[in-house]
Write a structure and sequence with these properties.
The protein has about 150 residues and is an alpha/beta fold. The protein has one domain. The chain has helices at about 5-20, 55-65, 80-90, 90-95, 120-125, 130-140, and strands spanning about 25-30, 35-40, 45-50, 70-75, 100-105, 115. Strand 1 and strand 2 (about 35-40) form a beta hairpin. The longest helix has 16 residues, at about 5-20.
């Protein structure tokens, strides 16, 4: 089976560096296992590579383990089980005000390669009745990764 942790690491680093081309505010990028730390001139971003969300407890453990000055992000594969996990554990995820989640298919041919979710912000603007439909629509905007 493909090492999706490395694939996601390579993709997200390239994506963040590309977004920073004009500002050139990235000072350092360090990868340690399933964690990437990106030091900008004015902030610190900590990304956790979780190709498949096995348990929301794993996610919460990682998020609770960073300092308050770091901005957390999770990079996952765009697969049905990951969006199901997010929907099922929505109330726990919205408690992290700065959390960003990247749902990625680095090999997508017909669609964009990512969609981005900020649960806290999304929860502020979305009504409860349409939450699941909206999240599933976002999920479908990127091809699902064939594992």
């Amino acid at each position: 089976m493909k090492d999706y942790g490395s694939v996601l690491a390579e993709w997200i680093i390239q994506y963040l560096q590309h977004r920073d081309i004009l500002l050139q505010s990235i000072q350092e990028v360090k990868r340690e296992g399933d964690t990437i730390k990106v030091i900008y001139k004015d902030k610190k971003l900590t990304l956790f590579l979780l190709p498949v969300i096995d348990s929301v407890h794993t996610v919460v453990e990682k998020l609770d383990g960073i300092s308050g000055e770091e901005i957390p992000a999770i990079v996952v594969l765009n697969i049905k089980s990951n969006i199901d996990s997010v929907i099922k554990n929505w109330q726990r995820l919205v408690g992290y005000k700065k959390l960003t989640m990247y749902f990625v298919n680095p090999e997508a041919k017909e669609t964009d390669r990512k969609w981005i979710l900020q649960p806290y912000t999304h929860n502020q603007i979305c009504d409860e009745e349409s939450l699941e439909l909206g999240l599933r629509s976002l999920f479908q905007s990127v091809e699902e990764v064939a594992l």
